[in-house]
Amino acid sequence: MKRYLKFPAVIIFFGVFACGSSEISDKEINGSSITLLTHDSFAVSDGLFDIFTAETGITVEQLSLGDTGQLISSSILTKENPLGDVVFGIDNTFLSRALNADIFDPYTSSRNSKLIDGLSYENSDYLTPIDYGHVCLNYWKSAFGDSLPPPSNMKDLLEPSYASSLVVQNPETSSPGLAFLLATISYFGSDWVNFWKVLNQNGVTVTSDWESSYYGDFIAGGGEKAIVVSYASSPIAELIYSDPPVEVSPTEIIEDSCFKQIEYAGILKNTKKRYEAELLIDFLLSQEFQEDIPLNMFMMPVSSEASLPNQFENYPVIATDLNAISPSEIETNRNNWTEIWTETVLR
Length: 347
Fold this sequence. Notes:
CATH architecture of the largest domain: 3-Layer(aba) Sandwich
Radius of gyration: 21 Å
CATH superfamily of the largest domain: Periplasmic binding protein-like II
Strand content: 15-25%
CATH topology of the largest domain: D-Maltodextrin-Binding Protein, domain 2
Number of strands: 11
Distance between the termini: 35 Å
Oligomer: single chain
Shape: globular
Helix content: 25-40%
Structural class: alpha/beta
């Protein structure tokens, strides 16, 4: 199966995008460049940004700074002299840390009126939602049968029959790993530590990142683990990229394990290219960009104008409040929660 998340380092895009008026003349921005800071899972179709440059004259340089946590940490450490102008990829698990660090300038795009309800953070104009998805447990369907049905919920994972079947990511080094930890905290409440104690006794495997889990220990990559922390879109990706082709995805999600992730973009406070940054935020909400998201980043578009590719028409409908934790509560408790998890699972 082809890997469906791409990991570019520094990529320069050229594009065309129609934008609104400004006191800055076209002559002043023509031939200029702007830097978009991203996590390492950012991916778009070749030539997508051609729409942006030909209309504005602005070249976009994309700089990957690692995972979401590294992206935010680097942006905070360099806020007085930022590495870029716009940041993409801050999700709701790290949102409050970014806002509390005061690294963004407010901006409200004219395209915000097209956003799907429930994605903006407390009507904040510092961060703009760009895409969303869900981290969920995935299982390899053929590994289960009449004698051992797949787990139907997270509690089932504690049964001896599922011993050594699960691989997860470390929440201190992995965004999906943190999302799954948060899902267990919301799901089990005050009993979440005991859940992880028993899960550890039941032979859970921990890796540092998603790729190592999915393409290393999970059956999809030739491993032996039948259950993995991945995404609600992973069964769709398996269907698209399976080699040889298949008519039905070999994987399925455990819905009650899902945690909603929303990814945001923001303009860095000390950018010297404020106008260009506004145009880029607008473009990230354009129909062209939004419709490119599903088959490249395997997330869902936030614009109500965006059409979904046929492959995503069966994306699961997951309750909005399932395993929900507010960004402020996550920020207050994240370090303590991950320290407890580390003591419970790794030591």
